[in-house]
Design brief:
alpha+beta, 24% strand, binds ligand A2H
Length: 256
């Protein structure tokens, strides 16, 4: 656990159609999704990159809760995260964090989602084995242009779909260039993964290095090359994109 509080932007990613495995699970457990708005809640430090989402990751080893967030909305995230939210005035009742039902990440895989601001309209929930249950919401939205972890995970899924029990095309959405830096070009994650010879999502030491380099360079020297704030510095655009998402009720601030 971090010592200093970390502020995340929590992005609400709507599940527009559950995978057959999830539908079956809900039927067996008498959970009716009809008329409910269900959102995966992904914690991000890079709201300015949401244009480039290509899928949303859950861990096949984490049990997620589905929580009543009020106004007919339900959040899918770890209990730990919803508990924190319940003390941050983000839920109907302070200190109340009992889920309506729990579902394993694996059961959600293949569900269709609609990710806010994403250029790609129909995306899927996919597995990421390196998601930590102890951080954020346990849900990570995938931005392969700017996150080395996301880039290498999507690549792995694309090359071994059978192993991961997915359809190859679910991992096929094209990377969307959003930020340009002089050092790493328009696809900084791909550049750094190649430069540091990262082969797999398990190359954690090299990935930590790549993540650090990508984050610093993108934030301090990056220029937006797409979206509403095109041509603005990332440092300037970031708080604006974040505020736009919050104003449209597509995101909220989450601390831990
Ligand atoms: B970031 P920090 Cl484009 N397990 O969002 C593993 N990783 C997690 C996580 C969890 N439970 N919860 C969040 N994260 C990821 C975008 C992004 C992110 C980009 C570039 C870098 C980047 C799209 N994925 O993070 O340990 C989320 O991915 C690199 C720092 O709190 C979140 O932001 O510093 C970031 O890690 C939070 O990591």
């Amino acid at each position: 656990e971090a010592v200093l509080p970390q502020e995340y932007t929590a992005i609400k990613i709507e599940v527009v159609e559950f995978a057959p495995s999830a539908k079956e699970f809900f039927n067996e457990n008498k959970f009716d999704t009809a008329g409910k708005k269900l959102y995966l809640v992904a914690a991000t430090l890079r709201p300015e990159t949401m244009l480039g989402q290509t899928c949303c990751f859950v861990s096949p080893n984490i049990d997620y809760g589905i929580f009543d967030a009020g106004n007919n909305e339900y959040y899918i995230c770890t209990e730990r995260a919803f508990k924190n939210m319940s003390y941050q005035k983000l839920t109907p009742k302070r200190g109340y964090f009992k889920s309506v039902i729990d579902i394993n990440g694996k059961t959600l895989i293949g569900s269709k989602i609609h990710a806010p601001l994403a250029v790609h309209k129909e995306l899927r929930i996919l597995p990421m084995e390196t998601v930590l249950a102890s951080k954020g919401t346990g849900v990570v939205t995938c931005v392969p242009s700017d996150s080395p972890d996301d880039f290498i995970t999507q690549k792995e899924l694309f090359h071994k779909p059978e192993y991961y029990g997915i359809e190859k095309e679910w991992a096929a959405p094209e990377l969307v260039p959003i930020i340009k830096t002089e050092k790493y070009g328009e696809k900084c994650a791909e550049f750094l993964v190649n430069e540091l010879k990262i082969q797999s999502p398990k190359d954690s030491i090299q990935l930590a290095k790549a993540k650090e380099l990508a984050y610093k360079e993108g934030f301090y020297n990056g220029i937006m090359i797409a979206g509403k704030y095109k041509n603005e510095k990332v440092e300037v655009a970031k708080p604006k994109v974040k505020q736009d998402l919050i104003d449209s009720k597509l995101a909220f601030v989450y601390n831990e």
